[in-house]
Write a structure and sequence with these properties.
Blueprint: H1 2-12, H2 20-32, H3 35-51, E1 53-54, E2 61-62, H4 68-71, E3 76-83, H5 86-93, E4 100-104, H6 122-131, E5 136-139, H7 145-158, E6 164-167, H8 183-191
Parallel strand pairs: 3-4, 3-5, 5-6
Antiparallel strand pairs: 1-2
Helix pairs in contact: 1-2
């Protein structure tokens, strides 16, 4: 009996952010659940692994050939928001006023880790911009070294196409105090200042 619990704990620790103690708590919680609920979780995992695929247009996760966002005719098709991962779309979608299409790179450039442009969906991005009526590409890669390198690379490869390329602004979060901001965050906030 102890071996199967240890096995479940070991499997749960493979999930991001789940340490051994949390995995143990989850394992015993799962053990105490009614069979139907535990099996429902297992079935949901099985279904997502079996049916999830990448959208043929934007590389978001979907069950269909084309995702719901790309299929939505009410979207602003003149703007394309470029993100690193499908999970980034969920965050941006919370901003209800930003109703554009997306393009998921499935990572960020990192030559030291062997992540070169051909390993990402950059060629597909160039094709989408070239073959559609995209007027603006909003780059929403993470504000870190890999994200910045990726944003610069995308700007360079899109510049011959004459499309407007913008970068999301970043800096001080709302409700924070300037005295607690680090130099990089404050520097970016000053660079991204706008007229009021």
């Amino acid at each position: 009996m102890h071996g199967i619990i240890d096995n479940l704990v070991n499997e749960l620790t493979r999930l991001p952010g789940i340490g051994r103690k949390t995995a143990q708590r989850l394992a015993f919680f799962i053990l105490s659940m009614p069979d139907a609920e535990a099996l429902s979780i297992a079935e949901a995992i099985h279904k997502v692994k079996e049916k999830a695929r990448f959208c043929s247009h934007c590389f978001n996760i979907t069950e269909n050939e084309v995702c719901e966002i790309c299929s939505d005719d009410s979207r602003d098709r003149s703007r394309l928001c470029v993100v690193e991962e499908p999970s980034n779309i969920l965050v941006i979608e919370r901003v209800k006023s930003f109703h554009c299409l997306y393009h998921v790179l499935l990572g960020a450039l990192s030559p030291i880790d062997g992540i070169t442009p051909d390993r990402l969906k950059i060629r597909e991005l160039v094709d989408r911009v070239r073959n559609n009526s995209v007027q603006e590409v909003v780059i929403a890669t993470n504000p870190n070294t890999k994200g910045e390198i990726t944003a610069q690379y995308i700007k360079e490869v899109l510049s011959p196409l004459g499309v407007k390329v913008t970068r999301i602004a970043y800096g001080l979060p709302m409700g924070s105090d300037i005295e607690f901001a680090d130099e990089v965050t404050l520097s970016k906030a000053l660079e991204g200042r706008r007229e009021i």
